[in-house]
Amino acid sequence: MANRKWWTLTVLTTALVLACTTTPGTSPTPGATGTAGPSPTGAPSPTQAPEPALPTVPTGYTELDAALGADKPYNGKRVTIQTQWIGGEGANFDAAVADFEAATGIDIVQESIASQHELVLRTRIEGLTPPDLAMLAQPSAVVEYGGRGLTTNVATFMDPATLNSQFAAGFGTSLITGQGGEIWGIPFKVDVKSTIWYPIKAFQSHGYTVPTTWDEMKTLAAKIVADGNGSPWCVGIRDGQATGWIATDWLEDVMLRTAGVDAYNRWITNDLKFDSPEVRAALAVIAEQWFTDGYVNGGYQAITATDRLEPMDAMFPTDGNWEGFTPGCWMHRQATWFGPDFFPDKRANPDPAYVSQYVVGEDIGIMYFPEIDPAHGKPALGAGDTLMVLRDDPAKPEIRAVAEFLSTPHGLQRWIERGSAISANQTTPDEWYAGAYKLAVAADIVGNSTSFGFDASDLMPPEANRAFWDGISAWIDSGGTGTDAFVQSVDAAWPAP
Amino acid sequence: MAIESRDNTEIDLVRRLAPPLAAVVGLVVVAIGVMILADRSAATNLLASIYEALGNGQGAIDLRNGVGDQLLAKLVLGVVAVFVGVAGIWMLYIGVSSIVGLLSPKWQARILPWVFVVPAIALLTVFLIYPTIGTIITSFTAQTNGDPLAHYKALNSPAYLSLLQNNVIWLVVGTGGSVLLGLLIAGLVDRVRREALAKTFIFLPLAISFIGASVIWRFMYEWKPDGQPQIGLVNAVWTALGGEPIRWVQTQPINTYALILIFVWLQTGFAMVVLSAAIKGVSVEVIEAARLDGASERQIFMWVIVPIIKGSIITVATTIAIVVLKIFDIIYVMTGGRNGTDVLANRMFVEFYEFFNDGRAAALATVLFIAVLPVMFINVRNLRRQGIGS
Amino acid sequence: MAAWRPAFIRSAPLRIAVVAICALWSIPTIGLLVTSVRNPADISTSGWWEALLNPFEQGQWTLGNYQAVIASEGFITAFINSLVVTIPSTVIPITIAAFAAYAFAWINFPLRGLLFAVVVGLLVVPLQMAFIPVLRLFGQVGLNGTFLGIWLAHTAFGLPLAIFLLYNFISQLPRDLFESAAIDGASHFQVFIRLVLPLSVPAIGAFAIFQFLWVWNDLLVALVFLGTGEDQRVLPSALNVLIGNRGGQWHLLTAGAFLTMVVPLAVFLLLQRAFVRGILAGSVK
Fold first, then answer.
1. What are the Cα distances from residue C60, in Å, to B91, B230, C56, C64, C210?
2. Do A115 and C230 touch (CB under 8 A)?
3. Of the four, A25, B256, C94, C236, which is 20 to 30 A from C17 by CA?
4. Which residues of B touch C14 (CB under 8 A)?
5. Is A292 exposed, middle or buried (0-12, 13-18, 19+ CB in 10 A)?
6. Whole-model pTM?
7. Binning pLDDT at 50, 70 and 90, where does residue B126 land?
8. For residue C55, is it within any domain?
9. What is the distance between the alpha carbons of residues A470 and B106, in angstroms, rounded to a whole number?
């Protein structure tokens, strides 16, 4: 819906490239981790001073300054925020706001509702009993709420000029705005999606190399199958009512690479129909990898049957020993929100303090989803979570204080230090990302990319989004034979403007 | 004399005042109850106040901070609700009736029925009648761009028509399946010694929620890739018979029938119970006469008993049909309407909650309502014919 | 009408057929129950029927699944919430419906026929018709997400059935009962309290069971009016969330599902007769 503007390449490229203390060349290669051990554990990396994750006063925001004052005027107040972050992600958010809670006495209560987050949110908003704040991944929904006056225009208490300078438009980092200059949503966390997780040590021991072009990828996949070493791809997209979104990510990544970012942006607004040669060509690329016998672990039928957290389990040795172990599947295309919190040993262990024995950067690596058509370069796909202020009560200025805090880089600091998040705020200090393998890779991808696309399905109107999710799931279930039905159903579901 | 009469009048006075007093007390109880209960944190506030009154300050603070005896607070709230809801309402009724009893008989006869009926009518109006009319109006006015019939016209598209088709399939197969199976089982079980026990097994699923049944059947339909051990019973049997495991819930069009099977499993018990009682109500003489004529048991069942219990069959069929037309939970939990299993009720939910399409959702609800009306008419007419409810 | 009893047919095929049908009907539920006490590792590698065939194998039975579900998925809170939602929703409609049913049955007043027809008609109105406007109404008075809101909603939604059942019963009470009471000078109110209510206990019991089961098992009304916040979830909602979050983890799902089913199954088994009587009261003379 909103037009995507281009990101200021120079600023960010320089900043993020500088952030990596070792620059692994133009594409992330496995094992290039001579730096301080990248360990996304709860402890901050050694270069971090143990200061509280708080912005320095004065911040320029009235309520935030007041909250951080010594007299703690908001002590004992409760602010509720609804998110879709459960498990490890939820814990990371709690850690991110812990220092703020300690300093101000405000109790930030996170209501994590994973499987029906949007539905519950809508019910609560519609029923006029919303949470104070909420995080949403779909900008189109934020615009919808804003247009109906159901969410607060933060420009009424936060300086638009400041916000605009910190959130320049582009790669998931732009403010969600309305027609009249209202600001409905402030981006919080950004995910890079053009990433593939793979087992570094298994690649080495079997003599496989990370592909940098799609042709190399196809060769690698064929080789894995020919060697009898399991299936090249781990794919699982089941996510309750939202099943399908991971498959849409695949299509979006491929579209950027085969059709180019211009066509991609026209696709988002339905100017480029789903029933078009470009989309069909992109689907064919995916079909080749998914529906060829032996390419996907469990066969293509397993794709919609496997829960989104589980497909990579086959990549791990059951006893932690990579020696002589052949993974059941070799590559898992998933965004940067994924990580050790979701590895099988961590999921099976109920102890919240347990950290996965597998280290990202040593055992498991991240590669860039290779370019397909050199004419369209190396695009990067991204998405993000946006903060909405749903309740603006003059009697509860603490809500504003929390919103203002979350808009600063410090709102995400601890999460970044755990190596698990990328801030949408462009004034985020680069040294925070130092030493975290995943973030280094993400920064690298972004830094080296030639174009950017925001997650298309999140920008499409809700009916189209849903038809897209459902349609691609049905397409998978049909083994790729139902292409016509799929593309036509999405076009048909697009609402009239 | 004067003293006695004064005593009498005093007692009389008290007796006369008591019921209206009850009305006032009842009103106060209900009002206070509602005020306490209407608070979002009613449970915690209530118990916290009690604790404070009892001197347990710490307990009160804990409660207000979200820890402490939260569960106890809720139970206390429930008890208060039951008290207010029953005792309070009773006192209101008693009181108001007695006030009316003070009026002249003519006015009593006029007003008392309304006292009895108004609370129910009021609740029904607020929660059912007014919203129904409101929804119908919304379907003509919300997001229609000036054309009142916009949403209804939009229903004439392949996507929505396939939806309606699903509802029809559910109606025919779901109702037919439940009724036929219920009839069959009622007939069989009738002749067995441990009849009551057998019936219990069939009937038991009726106590299971739709979502519980969905978990049960999801497990039954579970799919594992070919070659791996099947943990879902249906696929286990299927592969044992030589087939490849099938994704029962994802594969069109068989998935709709897989879902309908769940419904039939749940509802057959209801049909069985009603039809069993109806069968038992058939007069002995007629059966004996047919036997004497040389009819076999099966012929008796099909050509004598069934026509006689036709009224009950229609009752059961229409009751189940109404439930089927409104079906939501099973589809919502099993597939969310995906893979071609969508039905009206689920789609209405999705249109409202996911697509922000109030008008379209209202139109779907209205269509649902219209679809149900004829079935209801048949049901009521059938009941009247049987002499019930007249 | 004398009921006809066929000679108990001792034919083996018939008995086998009946046993088979009973088994078929119970198998899904048994599958759930057996799986809920199995080891998580076993569940994904073998069918539950195999566990039944080797019941004495070591280490395959466990109550850990129930522990896990109760400890970490908020099922206890959900259980209490279900209790707190269901019991008032069952009890409150009874009074209101009983008064109304009596008036419809035995008092002549204008518009009586029309109002009763409307009430019966409301039996079939789908809830979906009601919940958007009621949601907005609740929003304006601040009742969304409160227990009071959902009690009121369930009371109102249960009234048509309650009135219908009680009406059927009360209208079939013998006329002489009322005539002699009228002769004794009793007011409608006294007749209601002293005669009708005590005699209506079976019908009230039947409705109470229906309503209890329906409210306890309800997902949609709770979803819309109470919400699915951790604090307010009822058991079906908790199970729904569990399905969403732990899709493939059958050891948790089956245990959770069984927990939601325990109370209704118990109520049903103990009060079967009344339940059946209630069903029949509305359908067969």
1. 57, 18, 9, 11, 38
2. no
3. B256
4. 188, 191-192
5. middle
6. 0.80
7. very high
8. no
9. 66
Q: How far apart are CA C257 and CA C45, in angstroms?
A: 21
List the beta strands (DSSP E) in C70-228.
none
Q: What are the C-alpha distances in Å from A341 to residues A233, A433, B213?
A: 21, 18, 32
| Domain tally, chain C | 2
- Is the complex ipTM higher than 0.90? no
Q: Which domain CATH number covers C82? A: 1.10.3720.10
Q: How many CB atoms lie within 10 A of CB A120?
A: 23
pLDDT tens per residue, range C124-155: 787 877 877 888 888 888 787 788 889 999 99
Q: Are residues C94 and C126 in the same domain?
A: yes
> Are C22 and C107 members of one domain?
no
Confidence of residue A23 (pLDDT cuts 50, 70, 90): very low
Amino acid at C263: V
On whether the CB atoms of residues A17 and A451 are closer than 8 A, the answer is: no
Residue A153: phi, psi to the nearest 5? -80, 105
Give the tokens for residue B308: 């006689």
B225·A302 Cβ contact <8 A: yes
The string of pLDDT tens digits covering residues A162-213 is 888 888 766 667 788 877 888 899 999 888 899 999 999 999 999 999 999 9
Summary mean pLDDT of chain A: 82
Residue-number span of the structural domain to which C206 is assigned: 69-283
Q: Is C68 on the interface with A (CB under 8 A)?
A: yes
Q: What is the rounded radius of gyration, in angstroms, for the C-alpha atoms of chain C?
A: 24
Could you tell me if residue C60 is inside a domain? no
* C64 within some domain: no
The domain segmentation of chain B, as residue ranges, is: 12-141, 153-386
Query: Are A299 and B250 in contact (CB < 8 Å)?
Result: no
Q: Which of A82, A118, A120 to mutate to test the interface with C (most CBs of C within 10 A)?
A: A120
SS3 content of chain C, % helix, strand, coil (to 5): 75, 0, 25
Are residues C132 and C251 located together in one domain of the fold?
Answer: yes
Is there a single domain that holds both residue C83 and residue C19?
A: no
How many CA atoms lie less than 13 Å away from B299 in the CB half-sphere? Answer: 9
Which residues of chain C have a CB within 8 Å of the CB of B34?
A: 148
For residue B215, give the nearest of C17, C80, C253 by CB distance. Answer: C253
Averaged pLDDT, groups of 10, chain C, 285 residues long: 50 84 91 88 80 77 84 82 92 92 87 85 80 82 82 92 86 84 79 85 86 90 78 85 76 90 90 77 53
Q: Looking at the structure, tell me whether residues C36 and C141 fall in a common domain.
A: no
Chain centroid offset of residue A283 CA: 22
What does DSSP assign to residue B68?
S
C-beta atoms surrounding C146 within 10 Å: 24
Q: Please indicate, yes or no, whether residues C42 and C85 belong to a single structural domain of this protein.
A: no
Residues of chain A positioned with their CB less than 8 A from the CB of B354: 118-119, 122, 462, 466
Q: Which amino acid is at B380?
A: V
CB contact under 8 A, C125 and B132: yes
A111 touching C (Cβ < 8 Å):
yes
Widest CA span in chain B: 104
Q: Inter-chain contact C28–B127, Cβ cutoff 8 Å?
A: no
Residues of chain A neighbouring C229 (CB-CB closer than 8 A): 111, 113, 120
Min Cα–Cα distance to chain A from B339, Å: 6
Nearest to A298 among B225, B250, B251 (CB): B225
**CATH number attached to the domain at B153-386:** 1.10.3720.10
Q: Are residues C116 and C214 in the same domain?
A: yes
Same domain, residue pair C33 and C144: no
Q: What pLDDT sits at residue B203?
A: 86
DSSP string, B304-322: IIHHHTHHHHHHHHHHHHH
Q: Residue type at C143?
A: L
